[in-house]
Amino acid sequence: MPNPHDPILLVEDDIAIATVIIAALEDEGFAIAHCTGIAARDKLLATRRFAVMLTDVILEDGDGLASLSAVRERAPDMPVIVLSAQNTLDTAVRASESDAFEYFPKPFDLDELVHAVRQAAGARSPSAEDSNVPIPGEGEKMPLVGRSPAMQGVYRMITRVLRNDLTVLVTGESGTGKELVAEAIHELGNRRTGPFVAVNTAAIPADLVESELFGHEKGAFTGAIAQAIGKFEQANGGTLFLDEIGDMPAEAQTRLLRALQSGRIRRVGGRQEIAVNVRIIAATNRDLTPMIAAGTFREDLFYRLNVVPIVLPPLRERREDIAALAQHFLVLAAEDGLPRRVLTADAIEQLEARNWRGNVRELRNVVYRLTLMAREERIDADAVSDIIGPEIAAASVPQDAGQGGFGGALAAWLAAENPPPGALYHRALAAFEKPLIEYALGRTGGNQLRAAQLLGINRNTLRKRIGELGLEPERFSPS
Shortest CA distance to 145 belongs to which of 282, 384, 318, 311? Predict the structure, then answer.
């Protein structure tokens, strides 16, 4: 095993980056040996021992990741830290499954890198036998697209959960790709040979959620004419993806918590407990914190689900990925039988300027629409404007909101309620929900589909909240 006082080997052909890393590590008391390619690296490893190796992926004479097997032969216990400007999910997974101690996409935080080197110098790198996850090939499609800094944290979190069965909670706005994250964890992880079962809890009637998840016995309720296997049993040995977990009814939350704690379920109307081996990945586009404060979501269930949180950024916070995403969707559209199209630079610029409140899903739909309706192979900015039209402006707060309007209403509510210290945020959110939904229903004449679109939430979520708040949509209909 390498001695923590042995020097650090840096394999980096970008001299500017190498200079900065060397200076930072020498300030920490490390001795550094530096080379710029694979051949020089192998010569150094043949004659010296190193505590840690830092390596770039694309080197002057080859792929630093693909050649790690030669490193393992010479120094099987030496931790390896991978640096890369190829900031894709594929690269992150390759680094993880090549037994890298850590992976840093460029540009990286220098303090974090130094901290990782300190940790690696006193740690043993995992053995190759510890991994049973395949390394995706260069040509293999990754389910997530984007190299922005905002997506690098997502990729790193995904790679951290591939070799274990920890429960994951994916949060993010509608359309950001939460199910794609769940699919990536399943397909690249150690449960890839088992089933992947997805269920949208918001799309199931409240009185059928438990039956859908846990199954039911014949005669358990009216209409139960035969035994039914629930999603937990269907996902046995694999992954169960629970989408829109924030919309799960309270009673079903209790049974879900019990199943997560015990690893056993009971079908509705059944007496026998059934052991299940399922990895849970949950997702929601709602902020569960105010729901916990309002008592509509169990706090203990939240902590049981939120073992590994993965937060997906909205598309407006990673605009640099829009061009790559648009090109990706052009390819998918062609594979789906639509005409092959090319987006011009000014068309991409116009797409990058939009706010994409529907996130990646909205961008995908727009690209498909452009592909279908464009008259020319090359889609320019004028074609984008003609086909998808101007962006609908988001509602803005009036300039005098602090003295009237919402600001005045909030001040009046605070004076009347006088919430205790520490409760203002959650109490205000809970109080604001009902008038907000009433406003949306009023704007849309009681049309729940249009109201849900205006609010940016799922229609079933809106219908559920309307029932729980005791609202009557018909009273908003035009007389």
Answer: 318
d(C-alpha 172, C-alpha 406), whole Å: 26
Q: Could you write out the DSSP letters of every residue in 437-466?
A: HHHHHHHTTT-HHHHHHHHTS-HHHHHHHH
The candidate with the shortest Cα–Cα distance to 117, out of 29, 58, 40, is 29
Q: Would residue 139 count as lying in a domain?
A: no
What string of pLDDT tens digits covers the 479 residues of the chain? 456 678 999 999 888 899 999 998 988 889 999 999 999 999 999 888 999 999 998 888 888 888 888 888 888 889 999 988 877 787 788 877 777 888 888 878 888 899 889 888 875 433 333 333 333 333 344 568 888 888 888 888 898 898 899 999 999 999 999 999 999 999 988 899 999 999 998 888 777 888 888 888 887 777 777 878 889 999 999 999 999 999 888 888 888 899 899 999 888 888 888 899 999 999 999 989 888 988 889 999 999 999 999 999 999 999 999 999 999 999 999 999 999 999 999 999 999 988 898 999 999 999 999 999 998 899 998 888 888 877 654 443 344 434 445 566 666 666 666 666 556 666 676 667 888 888 888 888 888 877 887 887 777 778 888 887 778 877 777 65
Question: Tell me, what CATH number does 460's domain have?
Answer: 1.10.10.60
Q: Does 138 map to a domain?
A: no
Q: Do 213 and 274 fall within a single domain?
A: yes
On whether both 303 and 157 belong to a single domain, the answer is: yes
User: Which residue type sits at 162?
Assistant: L
Give a yes or no: residue 241 inside a domain: yes
Residue 303 CB neighbour total at 10 angstroms: 12
- Domain co-membership, 289 together with 334: no
How far apart CA 199 and CA 240 sit, in angstroms, is 8
The type of residue at 373 is M
How many Cβ atoms from other residues are within 10 Å of residue 255's Cβ? 18
Q: Angle at Cα 207 formed by Cα 206 and Cα 208, nearest 5°? A: 90
Domain shared by 321 and 303, yes or no = no
Q: Structure pTM?
A: 0.63
Expressed in percent and rounded to 5, the helix, strand and coil fractions of the chain are 50, 15, 40
Are 327 and 261 in a shared domain? no
Residue 352 placed within a domain: yes
Tell me: cis bond preceding 107? Omega within 30 of 0 counts: yes
Tell me: do 162 and 291 sit in the same domain: yes
Domain that holds residue 417: 405-476
The answer to whether residues 424 and 278 belong to one domain is no
Please compute Rg for the chain using Cα positions: 27
Helix axes 381-388, 345-353, angle to 10 degrees: 40
Q: Which is it for the CA torsion 199, 204, 210, 216, positive or negative? A: negative
The number of distinct structural domains making up the chain is: 4
Specify whether 307 is located in the same domain as 327: no
